[in-house]
Amino acid sequence: MTAEQGKRDCVQMIPSGTASGVIGAGFIAGFCGLGECMSFDIGGTSADVALILDGQPQYGTGERIGEFQIHIPSVSVTSIGEGGGSIASVGSFGVLRVGPESAGSTPGPACFGRSGTRPTVTDAVAVCGMIGQAALGYSAVTVDAGRPRAVPRCCASPRRWRRPRPGMWRRSPSCRSSARCRTSCAT
Which of 7, 54, 166, 185 is the least crowded, having the fewest Cβ atoms under 10 Å away? Predict the structure, then answer.
C-alpha cells in the first residue's frame, strides 16, 4: 500500500498487523508444501489464529475489532485475549483463569528476569522447556526457566482432584499416591 493509498483508504490499515502475520504464515506454508494449516501468532496480550487453505490466507467481510464490525475485505483472523504476558491466577471458584491482566513489557514475565513476580503464559512455556533453548531477539532477551519456579505458587503447584458426582469436581484434601487415589484422581 502506498502512502497516498494509505491516506485515501486508511480503514484498510486497521487489521494490517494481524493480517501480515497470517500472510507471512501462508508464504511459509506454501514454501513447505502445506496446503492446509493454521497460523498462530501470540503477542504480549493476545493470540491470533487464522486458517490457511490451499496455501492462501482466507479473506472475508464483517470481521470484528472489539465490539465493532468492519465491512471491508480483510484477512479472517480470530483473536483471543491470552498472550504471552497474560497473567495466570486461580479464581474464586478454584478455576484457572488467564488474563485479562498482563505483565506488560515491564516488568514482563518472570522468566525474562525483569522483576516480574506473577505467573504468565510465557513463564509456563519456559517451565515446560518450549522456549529458552536458544537465543531470542538477537540475544536481547534471555530466558531463565528457574525464575518462574520461584514465583508464588498461586496456580502453579500440582493438585489432585476427585469427582464426587458427575459434573462436579473438587480437590480432595486426602489425595495421596495410593492405589485408590490413582483410580479416582485426575492429574
Answer: 166
Q: For residues 20 and 36, give the distance between their C-alpha atoms in angstroms, rounded to a whole number.
A: 18
pLDDT per position as a tens digit, 58-108 = 888 777 777 888 787 788 888 887 888 998 888 778 888 888 888 888 888
20-29, 71-80, 89-98, 132-141: range with highest mean pLDDT: 20-29
Q: 181 or 47: which carries more pLDDT confidence?
A: 47
Cα–Cα distance measured from residue 152 to residue 118, given in angstroms and rounded to the nearest whole number: 7
| Cα 91 off chain centre by | 19
Extents of the domains making up the chain: 3-80, 86-149
DSSP letter string over 85-149? TEEEEE-TTS-EEEEEEE-TTTT--GGGTSS--S-BHHHHHHHTTSSSSS-BTTTTB---THHHH
Name 79's Cβ contacts closer than 8 Å, sequence gap at least 6: 18, 46, 47, 48, 49
3-state secondary structure at position 24: helix
- The confidence score (pLDDT) of residue 177 equals 39
